[in-house]
Amino acid sequence: MSNIVVGLDIGTSFIRCVIGQLDEENRMQVIGAAKKPSKGLRNGVIVNIDAAVSAIKETLEAAELMAGVIVTSVFTAIGGSQVEGRSSSSGVAVDTTRHNRRMEISEDTKDRAIESARAIVIPLGKQTLHVIPQEYKIDELPGYKEPVGSLGVRLDVSVYIVTASTTACSNLDLCVKRAGLNLDGVMLKTLAASIATLHEEEMELGSILIDLGADSTDVMVIFKGSPTYITSIPVGGNFVTNDIVQVKGIPFADAEQIKVNSGCCWIEGNEADEEVIIREIGARPAEQTTRYELCEIIQPRMEEIMTMVKRAVVKHSGLKQLNGSIVLTGGGALMPGIVQLAQNVWRTTSVRVGECPDMGRLPDTNSYFYRSCDFATVTGLMLANKKNASKERTRRVRVKKDDENSIAEGIGTKLKTFFKKFF
What we know:
Layout: E1 4-10, E2 14-22, E3 28-37, E4 41-42, E5 45-46, H1 49-67, E6 73-78, E7 83-93, E8 103-104, H2 107-117, E9 126-138, E10 141-144, E11 151-152, E12 154-165, H3 166-178, E13 182-188, H4 189-197, H5 200-205, E14 207-212, E15 217-223, E16 226-233, H6 237-248, H7 252-262, E17 275-278, E18 287-290, H8 291-316, E19 326-329, H9 338-346, E20 351-353, H10 376-384, H11 386-400, H12 416-420
Parallel strand pairs: 1-6, 6-13, 14-19, 19-20
Antiparallel strand pairs: 1-2, 2-3, 4-5, 7-12, 8-11, 9-10, 9-12, 14-15, 15-16, 17-18
């Protein structure tokens, strides 16, 4: 079904799927979603294809059952140490026959400038994932977001090029195909999450998206509407769980459950005295602790992660001043107290947990759980690729109605310009 768009986020701890469908008014509605434990991944890398395929199938089946449709193709994302980003710039003459003549800049001129800027040496084992225009200059005058239609002699463009491991992308493709699906595209994880959670004003002013995953923390800085820096910190939520394992001497599964159900990284008021029971394990009797004691274990590690992110952003991003927001996504952003901790580390109150847009209640439920911050990547994948489904729908409508001449506008006015940069 060409009006169906499916996002699939294959993470280390969980696999998430969201199924969206365009309604008669060309609005995206979520008709199915699922979240299941992941298998066969370590540090975001697929290490057991058969196990990963099994988990993908289980997640897709749950989402299909809710939506009442059969999925044939998906979009997915990649992140962690498998991706890298770098800036590049180049320029071309507007008139290829007479280089000193002012002419109107066309789409062809714009495409030639981008192609020239993307002509860089890609390391062996890497492939280009995105080439995102940041800024255009016309006759050395900066500040142009869209040069087409302006007059000039020379057009220069600065782009941000994202590359990904060829092996990792091939493994993603193989897993999806073995699950009986077609892979329509692979997208940068933090870019997808930003589409679902960031506002236009935040993109323009300068914001930081921090995706707190299980084995890594992925970061993207956006300024003037475009990514300017990406990185991945090899520390995530599993490190917090391991800290609880070491201090309390309990199995990883038990520590994970305690972290999810009772853990916090910033505590105030009466919550500190809340009791937490660690179950009996073998000959070891049940143990009683408090949320305050758990916080003393969790908080130092979460502060370390935030400090590492801040250090990397300050040193490498070129962002001089944060006028936008710090937006937290991923499973780690569900941790109680994460906003207060981030505010303390970054010395700003402009911190929030990312929330996905409202696209309707899930069928047969009163739930909107796809709006949660841990669904940011998979929901962003669906929204980013709404444009393709919209075009297909427009073609079908035009066959039935010759007078129909409008096409969809992406996911809304606030992200229209952003989409044009990488599709």
